[in-house]
Amino acid sequence: MVINGMKVQIVSGNIAEVPADVLITRLDSSSQGFAGNWHDNVSKAIIRTSGTKFHDQLADVDGTLLLAFGDDSQSCVYRNVLFVLEESSENLYDMVIRVLKEADENKMSSASLPAFFTSNFYDDHDVRINESLLSELHRAVVDFTASKPQNLKELFLVIYENVKSFQFLTDMLS
Questions:
Q1: Are 125 and 80 in contact (CB under 8 A)?
Q2: What is the model's pTM?
């Protein structure tokens, strides 16, 4: 579907298998410690498909966003990874807007974003919470696309193994 001129696709599956200029994922700043203990599912998928080359770039983090660049030798379908340090005071809407602006400002033409990339907000067992979060994600995507980004032209919202959430978000964006 096209929203305010941007192609937005909802994808069910593994985000590390979605071709994009940048894969966006979050890091819980309270637990990751930059020591290589990457336990969240997206980090595991990144490491499975590209090794630790993206995570190795986290040693010099001095802000809340880090764009880790890939190179021509990689075999994964995404080119770069935008790590977002999760700030406990930031709501999902603001976080989504912030990362999409960062991708656009760094001249990325396509981005993949896990629909539940903020695990502090997500509860797999509470459908009401999930629908509320997906509504907030939807609002952020619509508002971001209305800002007419210069470079980002395609966005993949990836949901992993959650049929109800996939259908809910698909219905919202239709």
A1: no
A2: 0.85
Residue 96 contacts residue 36 (beta carbons within 8 Å): no
Q: What pLDDT, in 10s, does the model give residues 48-97?
A: 888 888 888 876 666 677 888 888 777 789 999 998 876 657 788 998 99
Per-residue pLDDT, averaged over 29-34, amounts to 49
Range of the domain at 132: 2-173
Q: Convert the chain into a string of H (helix), E (strand) and C (coil).
A: CEECCEEEEEEECCHHHCCEEEEEEEEECCCCCCCCCCCCHHHHHHHHHHCCCCHHHHHHCCCCEEEEECCCCCCCCEEEEEEEEECCCCCHHHHHHHHHHHHHHCCCCEEEEECCCCCCCCCCCCHHHHHHHHHHHHHHHHHHHHCCCCCCCEEEEEECCCHHHHHHHHHHHC
Q: Which residue is it, tokens 């396509």?
A: 110
Tokens of 154: 């395609």
Longest dimension (CA), the chain: 43
Backbone region of residue 148 per phi and psi (left: phi > 0; alpha: psi in -120 to 50; beta: other values):
left
Structural domains of the chain, count: 1
